[in-house]
Write a structure and sequence with these properties.
The complex is a heterodimer of chains A (about 230) and B (about 725).
Chain A (H helix, E strand, L loop, with lengths): L1 E6 L6 H10 L3 E6 L10 E4 L21 H9 L3 E5 L1 H9 L5 E3 L7 E9 L14 E8 L3 E3 L2 H9 L3 E6 L18 E5 L5 E4 L15 H14 L1
Parallel strand pairs in A: 1-2, 1-3, 3-4, 4-11
Antiparallel strand pairs in A: 5-8, 6-7, 6-9, 9-10, 10-11
Chain B lengths: L4 H6 L4 H11 L5 H11 L1 H4 L4 H4 L9 E3 L6 E4 L4 E9 L1 H6 L1 H17 L4 E11 L7 H19 L3 E8 L8 E11 L14 E6 L9 H4 L20 H15 L4 E6 L4 H13 L2 E5 L12 H6 L5 E6 L4 H10 L3 E9 L3 E6 L2 E7 H4 L23 H4 L4 H9 L8 H4 L10 E3 L6 E4 L6 E7 L2 H6 L1 H18 L3 E10 L6 H20 L4 E7 L3 E2 L2 E2 L3 E10 L16 E5 L10 H5 L13 H16 L5 E4 L5 H12 L2 E4 L8 H6 L6 E5 L4 H10 L4 E8 L2 E4 L3 E4 H17 L1
Parallel strand pairs in B: 4-5, 9-12, 17-18, 24-27
Antiparallel strand pairs in B: 1-2, 2-3, 3-6, 4-6, 7-10, 7-11, 8-10, 9-11, 12-13, 14-15, 15-16, 16-21, 17-21, 19-20, 22-25, 22-26, 23-25, 24-26, 27-28
Helix pairs in contact in B: 7-8, 7-10, 8-10, 10-13, 19-20, 19-22, 23-26
Classes of the chains: A alpha/beta (about 230), B alpha+beta (about 725).
Chain lengths: ~230, ~725
């Protein structure tokens, strides 16, 4: 399987994502933001970081970058696009995903392990995933997902809420909500489920010596779904 | 402006120094030249009060590739890999403007490291604040934490360990010490020494603005009531630009274009150009019209003194300009040829085709003032005699809870959760342990790092305190299973013109030297921050030690959390019951006098090396050094982290139980051993003549001792976590 990771100036999880993708069998290429063509890919990843310094708004300038037109085309033709953290913010800025990521409710940067519940397995990302609750890592200042009531209704009606923050048993409540996201939303799909944006970083949890191994489950499952 | 003695004094120079300048130059300097002298001759850049004493530091060792004197120190970690590291203070600016002060502190130290060709792989910090009750403390803490996070998180370098202390001596002068470790190929190290004549001098990075002018002079003076007016001397950081600069520099360093490179830190373009030329024994000619400026009509004076961040000065091989420019263009950074190296041995500054300065380089560097300041020896205070009858009214439960929630002992999660500590995907020991640990990417190796200070010990007896901090760093590195290799030191002191403060400095340095020699733990880099004084009140002497160790196989790393019920817990090292200067004495008995615990370097080395042997032979499950608060605090932290309890054995020691549990004798560790290995461990300890006590057996949830202590680990956790959270919320 072929993947591509886009590097924006200020991206800082690009290498981590490259390491993770290769570890689980992807042939990965790094793509510079100023390129206009994407290499032939089965998966495009927008990595975490502070693209363009997060100036103006997180992800907004990356959302207008040269390469992004090709990413949008690729996504609209049904290609898989995964945005992690800043990548999620960029996806909302391009309009590929609805809503916006605001500053965390406690106004502090948060770096810690969280649990997320997978809400929809009928897609390439989570189909057959062996666990319903994953322990992943978050590291962000703007992860507080917000959208209008209409958008929220659409998300719910179309099963677009990919993952929600929960406790280790899978209960989603305000107490365990790390950043104030509406409905504890940690990640969402587009309507067609080929685009996934989420705040947690699976690429930081890919061996037992790190914060945990549930990222391994995510990537192994993803490549196996793409192969089948 | 006409330069005279008054103008010189306004620039932070002393009368005698101004006279010396006029004599050396054989004329009165013009204003730009005066500014250059003031920038190079201040304490921060010239080390004029400390140089004489720093020479005595122990700086050599088999693993040392580069000792003090460069942008950072470098140690060999085998297989062609080397670690570049350094700690630096940003105290004065952080008090005036906590966010920017702390942020640019982090930015500055990272530049020192990647200037040498290394990719930064870990950040650490040691921060000291005034009393929690002081009106400024909370906002300063919040601002500093946000600043450190704001910069490090954006760059994408994990902050893996740190230290936060509160003490009223920092009410008017907080300390912000930032440390960075970088990884470099041993054969691809870049230095700041210029070489060759007529080589292009290149300016890269951000544009020059009016921020930070006189920053280095400000950091070389005491504070008074007017510090708010000094805000414009604080630099403003832009981590995004630094990230671009980092990537661009590393890209350019991949081949042989660069002769030498130096970041523009304190005293900006002045100190970087002078230092490069001075080390190469060359002259340098700069045309300031070529310097990219952020603001219009900047004068040569302002351009030379600006401390705008994220800038580098590079001397290139001839003919490499085009290729280098292409890289910087790609990253959207300024690139400008601003001058050349010359054989004049002078720094010559041109602007609008007029010469604005012409100064022999050696007057600025080698001929900078050197002071042998007067100092006072600080005697060892008399040991206190505690009235044991008083202890009868105390109970262990209450004492333990009170100390666990003490501001200097409590859990600092509120702080380190605001730092990205997992980016780069190699952090295998997070903040909150004895040392942070990151893997050397793509290898089996890992490096451990820790930062430590003990200002109460240093204040009470600087010589012992200096030794103690080095030992504490050594113990923290051992506790995670790493072999301690070298240290960097950040020497934070009061006013060197005050004999007592100068004595504290000299004797702390003496202590550091003695311990680092004995432990073969050399100092490879560091900095000195004097004048941490406000209205005649200086800080307690606070040498901060950043230690670095190597773990050959990261799978052998060890953590402090208790692992399994039924395991044996031992205290390594002898407990003598030294309560003077302990948290127990201060918090419970309200007694602040007495000497710090004694350092026995033989035991320190022997105990540490034996622990390392046990870890290497995979005989122990967990390890933690005993420091602030004593045995019971160290043990509680191991219980909290492991969510386990312990049943403590009846004491065999002859000393009082409060002395046993809360004394702060040095050279001690607590280890956890399973039943299969215990005999082997006993044998090794005995063979090496290491004293140990059988402390107890791990259980599921309760910390128990006799009838006197019975607390669940949840309660201990609560006591340990609550203080800082509540303090920041209210």
């Amino acid at each position: 399987m072929k993947s591509s990771v886009i590097i924006f100036p200020g991206s800082n999880c690009d290498r981590d994502m490259d390491v993770a993708l290769k570890k689980f069998g992807f042939q990965n290429k790094m793509v510079w933001h100023n390129d206009d063509k994407l290499p032939n890919s089965d998966l495009i990843v927008l990595p975490g970081g502070f693209s363009y310094g997060d100036y103006l708004r997180c992800g907004s300038i990356a959302g207008k970058s040269k390469i992004i037109k090709s990413v949008i085309e690729f996504a609209k033709s049904g290609g898989l696009v995964l945005g992690i953290c800043n990548g999620f913010q960029i996806l909302t800025e391009t309009g590929l995903l609805p809503g916006v990521l605001q500053q965390n409710k406690n106004i502090d940067f948060i770096c810690k392990n969280v649990f997320i519940k997978i809400n929809n397995k009928d897609n390439k990302y989570f189909k057959n995933i062996e666990k319903d609750i994953l322990e992943l890592h978050i590291a962000h200042n703007e992860g507080n997902y917000f959208c209008s009531n209409d958008e929220l209704k659409n998300l719910e009606d179309n099963n677009q809420i990919a993952a929600s923050y929960c406790n280790e048993k899978g209960d989603c409540n305000e107490k365990i909500n790390p950043n104030g996201a509406i409905k504890n939303i940690a990640g969402i799909f587009n309507k067609e489920k080929n685009i996934l944006g989420m705040m947690p970083h699976p690429e930081r949890m890919i061996d037992k010596y790190l914060s945990g191994e549930d990222g391994t489950i995510f990537f192994k499952n993803l490549i196996s779904n793409l192969k089948s | 402006m006409k330069v005279n003695e008054k103008v010189a004094i306004d620039h932070g120079l002393k009368k005698d120094e101004f006279k010396k300048i006029c004599v050396l130059l054989k004329r009165v300097p013009n204003i730009t030249e005066l500014a250059i002298f003031s920038a190079m001759w201040n304490e921060h850049c010239s080390y004029k009060s400390s140089r004489k004493h720093l020479k005595n530091l122990h700086t050599k060792g088999k693993k040392v590739i580069q000792g003090p004197g460069e942008n950072a120190g470098i140690i060999d970690i085998d297989d062609g890999d080397a670690i570049v590291f350094k700690i630096e203070s940003h105290n004065h600016p952080s008090f005036i403007e906590p966010y920017q002060g702390a942020a640019t502190g982090v930015g500055g130290i990272m530049r020192d490291v990647f200037t040498m060709g290394a990719r930064p792989i870990a950040n650490l910090n040691s921060i000291h604040f005034g009393s929690p009750q002081h009106k400024k403390t909370k906002n300063l803490l919040r601002g500093v934490v946000k600043g450190i996070g704001g910069y490090g998180n954006c760059i994408g370098v994990p902050t893996i360990a740190g230290q936060t202390c509160f003490d009223e001596s920092y009410n008017g002068n907080i300390l912000v010490n930032a440390m960075t470790l970088g990884l470099v190929n041993k054969n691809k190290i870049f230095y700041s020494k210029a070489a060759g004549i007529d080589k292009p001098v290149i300016y890269v990075g951000s544009k020059t603005g009016r921020d930070g002018i006189h920053g280095a002079s400000m950091a070389s003076a005491v504070f008074d009531d007017q510090i708010e007016e000094k805000k414009p001397t604080v630099q403003v950081g832009d981590p995004f630009t630094e990230k671009l600069l980092l990537e661009a520099c590393l890209e350019l360093m991949a081949d042989d274009s660069i002769i030498s490179i130096q970041d523009m830190g304190a005293a900006g373009l002045t100190s970087s150009s002078v230092e490069m030329a001075s080390k190469g024994k060359l002259g340098i000619e700069l045309n300031l019209n070529k310097v990219p400026c952020r603001e219009e009509n900047m004068t040569p004076y302002e351009i030379m003194l600006s401390e705008s961040q994220e800038r580098m000065l590079i001397i290139l091989n001839n003919g490499k300009e085009k290729k280098a420019k292409k890289i910087f263009d790609k990253w959207g950074l300024d690139f400008s040829v601003i001058g050349k190296t010359t054989n004049s041995k002078n720094i010559e500054i041109f602007y609008d085709e007029k010469k604005f300065a012409d100064i022999p380089i050696d007057l600025l560097a080698e001929n900078a003032p050197l002071y042998d300041r007067k100092w006072k020896k600080i005697k060892l205070p008399q040991k206190l005699k505690f009235n044991k009858d008083e202890f009868k009214s105390l109970n262990l439960d209450d004492c333990l809870k009170k100390i666990l929630s003490n501001q200097n002992v409590c859990d600092k999660q509120w702080i380190w959760e605001q730092y990205d500590h997992t980016v780069m995907g190699d952090t295998i020991q997070k903040p909150g342990g004895d040392a942070g640990v990151v893997r050397v990417h793509g290898t089996e190796k890992a490096v451990a790092a820790s930062v430590d200070s003990s200002s109460s010990y240093c204040y009470s007896h600087p010589l012992t305190g200096g030794k103690q901090v080095v030992c504490e760093s050594w113990r923290n590195l051992i506790s995670v299973g790493s072999e301690p290799i070298a240290i960097t030191n950040c020497l934070n002191f009061g006013n060197p013109e005050n004999e007592k403060n100068m004595g504290e400095f000299i004797q702390c340095v003496e202590g550091i030297t003695e311990a680092s020699k004995y432990l073969n733990f050399p100092v490879v880099s560091g900095n000195v921050s004097f004048y941490n004084e406000t209205k005649n009140k200086g800080i307690k002497p606070t040498p901060t030690i950043g230690g670095v160790g190597l773990i050959k196989n990261y799978k052998n790393m060890i953590t402090m959390d208790l692992k399994k019920a039924g395991n044996n817990v031992l205290v390594i090292g002898k407990t003598e019951g030294h309560l003077d200067q302990s948290i127990f004495a201060k918090e419970i008995l309200n007694e602040k006098k007495g000497p710090p615990p004694e350092i026995n370097l033989f035991n320190e080395k022997n105990n540490g090396e034996t622990i390392l042997k046990l870890i290497k032979e995979k005989l122990i499950e967990s390890c933690h050094d005993v420091s602030l608060g004593g045995i019971l605090i160290a043990l509680s932290k191991m219980c909290i982290k492991g969510k386990k309890g312990i049943k403590i054995n009846p004491l065999k020691s002859l000393i009082n139980k409060f002395e046993y549990f809360f004394s702060e004798d040095q050279g001690r560790y607590i280890i956890e051993v399973n039943n299969d290995n215990i005999k082997n461990v006993y044998k090794i300890l005995k063979d090496n003549s290491v004293h140990f006590d059988e402390l107890g057996i791990v259980n599921d949830n309760l910390v128990e001792f006799d009838e006197e202590l019975n607390l669940s680990v949840e309660i201990l956790n609560e006591e340990n976590k609550t203080w800082l959270n509540n303090y920041m919320k209210n």
